[in-house]
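Supplementary Methods, section 5.1.

A reviewer requested that the exact input to the structure prediction be made available. We therefore reproduce it here, unchanged from the version used in the analyses.
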Amino acid sequence: MRKVIPVVTALGAEERLLGEVAVTERELRCAGVRTAVLVGGEGPPVVLLHGPGEFAACWFGVIPALRGAHRVVAPDLPGHGSSGEADGRLDADRTVRWLDELIAQTCAEPPTVVGHLLGGAIAARFAAAHPDRLARLVLVDSYGLTRFRPEPGFALALAGFAARPTERSRDRLFRRRAVEPDRVRDELGAAVTAFETQVLAAARTRRQRAALRSLFLRLALPAIPEEELARVTVPTSLIWGREDRQARLRGAQAAHERYGWPLHIIDGSGDDPALERLEAFLTALRAALAEGGRP
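The structure derived from this sequence is encoded cell-by-cell as follows.
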C-alpha cells in the first residue's frame, strides 16, 4: 500500500528528517529482498543509494533540493532501515540484481544513480555490468575504487562501534567522519539528533549487522578490478570530501586520472559532504547531473 508521508525515519522512529516534503513510501520485492523505497518529484529519475549503517532518509538535505526537477528514488539498502534481510547469500552479483530490479520497478527511463560510500560501490558495479541501464553515475566518497584502507584512527573507531554500538562509540566514530562535528550539530540540530539516534538503533539489530558483514566483505573491502571499472561507459562524476578518512581522496584522484571522470572536491568535509557541506555538495551534484564524464 502506498501513502504520502512527511517522512519519518526508518524503523518507526518519531523524528522527522524531511519536514513537510511529501514523498511516497513504497515496499517492493527486489532480488528476493523486501525493499523500502521513498519516491518523490517529477522529471528525469535520480536514484540515491546511502552509505553503510544508514537509511534512505539520510538524504534529507538532498531530496527536497532535487524533487522539483527530478523523480527521486531513495531505497533502504538490503538489511538497512525498513528493508528486509536477503534470504540466502548477499554477494556482489545479487546486490547488482537488487539494484537492477529496483530501477525496473521505479524508473520509466534510465536514471542517474548517486552512490555514497557503500552505495557507491554498488552503483559502480552496476554501471560496469549494465551501462545501458543508466543515464549517468555519480560516486560520492565511494568504496570500491581502491581497497578499503582507512586511516588508523578511523579504523579503530569503526571497529569499536561495530563491536559495541553505544552512544559513546557512535560519537567517537562520527567525530572521525566529520571535519567540524560541533558546527554540524549546531547547524542541523534536531535533524542530526534524529540521524544519530536511528543509526545507533539500527546498529544494534541483528538484521543490519548480518547485512553489513556480507556487504562489507564482498563490496566494500575489495577494490573493484580495473577491467570492470573500464567497462563503465556512462558519464561518470566523482564528488569527494577533501578530509575523508575512510575512502581517501587519493583513490578518487587516481580514478580521475585513469578514467577521465570529473572530480569535485568539497573543502571542509569528511566522508559525508551532503551532511557536512550541503550547499557545496548540491552545487557539485547539479554540475555532475549536467556534465559528461568519459563517454
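Strands lie at 3-5, 23-30, 33-40, 45-49, 71-75, 112-116, 136-140, 236-241, 263-266. These observations are discussed further in the main text.
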